[in-house]
Amino acid sequence: MAETKRYISKQELEKHKVPGDLWISMQGKIYNVSDWTKDHPGGEAPLLSLAGQDVTDAFIAYHPGTAWKYLDKFFTGYYLQDYSVSEASKDYRRLVAEFSKMGFFEKKGNVTLFTIFLVALLFTASVYGVLCSESTWVHLICGGLMGFSWIQSGWIGHDSGHYQVMSSRGMTRVAQVLSGNCLAGISIAWWKWNHNAHHIACNSLDFDPDLQHIPFLAVSPKIFSSFTSYFYDRKINFDSFARFLVSYQHWTFYPVMCLARLNLFAQSFALLLSKRRVSNRGQEILGILMFWIWYPLLVSCLPNWGERVMFVLSSFTVTGIQHVQFCLNHFSSNVYIGAPTGNNWCEKQTQGTLNISCSPWLDWFHGGLQFQIEHHLFPRLPRCHLRTVSPFVKDLCKKHNLPYNCASFYMANVMTIGTLRAAALQAQDLSNPVPKNLVWDAVNTHG
User: Which residues form the Cytochrome b5 heme-binding domain (predicted)?
Assistant: First the structure.
């Protein structure tokens, strides 16, 4: 006699979403992943954020088909009662299957090799100009070239956090540490931890770290009453200091982006020196130390302090373009408060994301961010295929009445400044009292 299946309700599943008791549903089967948080390659944040609900689409988005065979050891023996799949999810899963059959997830093209060559060229030119020229203008240009090399190395780090960019995992790890830690001074471990949380909780004000920029920036007045960051695991206060800065954020946005790299340096050190579990901590720290040896040494080769400051500001300002790019894709899109949900993956990813329209010859400049909707729906897809799959994604959005927002680079900037200005004007309303200034937030909030 066949064994009778055991079912639990959605309400019962929702009870299992606290550390040490994490259950998820995939295709109607219930899995206990409580002990998997410490070994999960994507970190614990995705599991903590999505526990207690169906996560099939998120799992499909982030894992190849071969990952399903590893789930059996987590199966509880329970099935989800009244499990159903929306029409949008059915079509989304068909697209994933079709792209897989076409080899899109495995064929990575020559984008990474081209980017590595470009990074090496820009870096070499910058170093050569500093060491072999006495011209102040050449030194200024060399600072800009260094900034451009950081932008391109950032695309390698971004891609490698989503899929294997080199021929093997070992070589991909080498590319990550060299392009991120050694060349740019940014911990790839921090980047993956932060970026995975962003993808899972796209545009959630209290779960998405890429929207938690208090005290410098606030994209919505919804957080003016202070809120709890579930990513940083602490309360973020909107005090008088934050109100002052946010009140003028539409004017300070670009200057803040020019210096945003300082915060990434600080966040990298904060993670690597924390008690949080970090894979390959030794490699990460060694890579960061390499950066803090060669970069100050190169700057010291300049003839005077004026040119040294000019070089640093030039490199930081140019790489600020990339920080602006990250903001354009989400700042002017729909935001919400609360935990991300797994049963409306397509809706949440498309509602919180904006594409940038550009010619194919500019794809190298945007690094895949111009097809941010496609990237958020299919994060494992190499960026060389994003333009190819764009028509399919447009059809999916049109069929299921999902937003597919796209704007030029210029208009995206206009929309972002408009969003910041609208929030700034509300912050200038002094009718609502705010807590006493807490400078600690200025140091510890990602922004």
Answer: 5-80
